[in-house]
Amino acid sequence: MTQRLVGRPAPDFAMETVSGDGKTFGKASLSDYKGKWLVLFFYPLDFTFVCPTEITALSDAAPQFSELDTEILGVSVDSIHSHRAWINTPVADNGLGQLQFPLAADLTKTVARDYGVLIEEEGVALRGLFIIDPEGELKYQVVNHNDVGRSVEETLRVLQALQSGGLCPMNWKPGDKHLVAQ
């Protein structure tokens, strides 16, 4: 039975990573992001077709997320070596080029399973995106079929709404009024 994640502590994780420039390997855990907002997103596989459109769009928007005290971490079931090769492959050849955030390797598929996005029979993740607040509470999740990319603009909008501290109606944008509870 599936359990809800939103409103609960985000599932802990520890994964190996490759830096966005493809030069260094490291590690990332949920505790590394304590005190900051985190956009944690899963994608199915390296060297696929929809994934680079999302990953590079998030990388292009990284300065906007940074202004909102938010880090980004991408995750797939591929190895850090595959991630590095994809980062170092030219965009013209279906590569990513330089990124503004690391990519993590979930080889054991534990993290994808813990976040409820693993397609067990295929061994890959759905397109899951999670916003985790500075205290580690999972505040937002969206999961798409792998044929459909996500929206960076909507992710930014939701993040800003969550950070606004008020009741935000549909299509709320920064500068809009909050709802007043009666």
From TrEMBL:
Checking CDD domains in the record gives: PRX_Typ2cys
The record's section on Pfam families has: AhpC-TSA (PF00578)
One GO cellular component assignment for this chain's record is: cytosol
| Domain Thioredoxin per the UniProt entry, residue ranges | 4-164
Q: Does the keyword Oxidoreductase apply?
A: yes
Look up keyword Disulfide bond and say if it applies. yes
Q: Which GO terms describe its molecular function?
A: thioredoxin peroxidase activity
Entry keywords, A to Z: Antioxidant, Disulfide bond, Oxidoreductase, Peroxidase, Redox-active center
Q: Which residues form the active site?
A: C51
Q: Record's family? A: Belongs to the peroxiredoxin family. AhpC/Prx1 subfamily.
Name of the protein in its database record: Alkyl hydroperoxide reductase subunit AhpC
**Taxonomically, what lineage is the organism?**
Bacteria, Bacillati, Bacillota, Bacilli, Bacillales
